[in-house]
């Protein structure tokens, strides 16, 4: 249904220098694909490129601040010049922004939206014409369960992740007839990624056992599977959260209370130790 997947694939990953992005590249390396690695830290990207080379993969390192539209244009130009195509775009770069809402600065708000959402929209806008020429494309947007229910003390982060989910749905509606499939990956708190581990370090506490979570390795495996099967959305968490969201949709007030009960303590603590 989703068309033949080229082999090898040319895969562009933002936020490839650390956490989920890096582990995703390592996972995909078994397929001997070609990679374009983007993030700000050139030395870390070079280290990932060395690992990929040892696994038999060619890669191009493009130091990029995804909050800069000009840098995103240069990234796509460099990728096309080197490989002539981009089959898979993984919009993974992201930052967290947990703080009491009224203490957020304009700069924190704008930087989070630029890094997590505007970058993905612009980069996708620049990449899709190449995918249209190819008649094949996969766009994987690294959203979060924070996009399925906005977290207390994480209003802007949640808004960017909900934006990525809506972007994914819109792109599917428009581009599937041209062979271009988008998927939103929605992890819960993921160990071995950076964001959750940093919050645990900062607070000295883990999130509620009832909320559970996932691992960066499981997220990487979900990206690999999404390239093959192209689902609209994949929620990654143990215990499963889809029934909780379904319950919340049917009983909004009670559902909201249950979600707050399992998340509020950890999120409030994270916000308070991250005060600007
Ligand atoms: N870990 C979790 O619990 C979790 C859960 C749900 C969703 N996610 C999502 O998964 C993605 C990766 O998170 P992670 O936990 O792996 O975080 P991480 O370890 O902090 O990695 C973030 C990556 O994004 C890059 N990045 C940040 N700002 C950038 C910018 N302005 N320009 C270019 N690259 C930038 C970083 O590279 P440089 O610093 O080198 O630029 C790094 O490679 C994020 O979108 C996050 O929201 C994470």
Please describe the topology of this protein.
Layout: E1 10-14, H1 19-28, E2 34-39, H2 42-54, E3 59-63, H3 69-83, E4 88-91, H4 106-134, E5 137-142, H5 155-175, E6 180-187, E7 190-191, H6 195-203, E8 214-215, H7 216-229, E9 233-236, H8 242-250, H9 252-273
Parallel strand pairs: 1-2, 1-4, 2-3, 4-5, 5-6, 6-9, 7-8
Keywords:
15% strand, two-stranded parallel sheet, Rossmann fold, alpha/beta, 276 residues, seven-stranded parallel β-sheet
Q: Characterize the largest beta sheet: strand count, sense, and whether it forms a barrel.
A: 7 strands, parallel
Which H/E pattern describes the elements? EHEHEHEHEHEEHEHEHH
Q: What would the CATH topology be?
A: Rossmann fold
- Share of helical residues: 40-55%
Summed over residues and divided by their number, the pLDDT gives a mean of: 96
Number of domains: 1
Radius of gyration, CA atoms, in whole angstroms = 18 Å
* CATH superfamily heading: NAD(P)-binding Rossmann-like Domain
Low-confidence stretches: none
Helix segment count? Answer: 9
Broad structural category: alpha/beta
């Amino acid at each position: 249904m989703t068309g033949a997947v080229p082999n090898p694939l040319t895969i562009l990953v933002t936020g490839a220098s650390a956490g989920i992005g890096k582990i995703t590249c390592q996972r995909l390396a078994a397929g001997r694909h070609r990679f374009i690695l983007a993030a700000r830290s050139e030395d870390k990207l070079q280290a990932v490129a060395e690992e990929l080379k040892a696994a038999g993969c060619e890669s191009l390192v493009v130091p990029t601040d995804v909050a800069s539209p000009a840098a995103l244009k240069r990234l796509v130009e460099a990728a096309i010049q080197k490989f002539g195509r981009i089959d898979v775009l993984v919009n993974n770069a992201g930052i967290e922004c947990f703080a009491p809402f009224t203490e957020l600065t304009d700069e924190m708000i704008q930087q989070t939206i630029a890094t997590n959402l505007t970058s993905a929209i612009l980069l996708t806008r620049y990449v899709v014409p190449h995918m249209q020429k190819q008649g094949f494309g996969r766009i994987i947007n690294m959203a979060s369960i924070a996009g399925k229910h906005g977290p207390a003390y994480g209003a802007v982060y949640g808004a960017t992740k909900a934006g990525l989910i809506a972007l994914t749905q819109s792109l599917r509606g428009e581009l599937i007839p041209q062979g271009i499939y988008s998927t939103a990956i929605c992890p819960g708190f993921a160990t071995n990624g950076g964001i959750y581990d940093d919050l645990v370090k900062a607070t000295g506490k883990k999130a509620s056992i009832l909320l559970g979570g996932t691992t960066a390795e499981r997220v990487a495996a979900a990206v690999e599977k999404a390239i093959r099967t192209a689902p609209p959305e994949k929620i990654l968490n143990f215990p499963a959260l889809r029934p909780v969201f379904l319950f919340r949709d049917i009983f909004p007030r009670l559902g909201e209370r249950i979600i707050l009960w399992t998340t509020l303590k950890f999120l409030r603590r994270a916000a308070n130790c991250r005060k600007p």
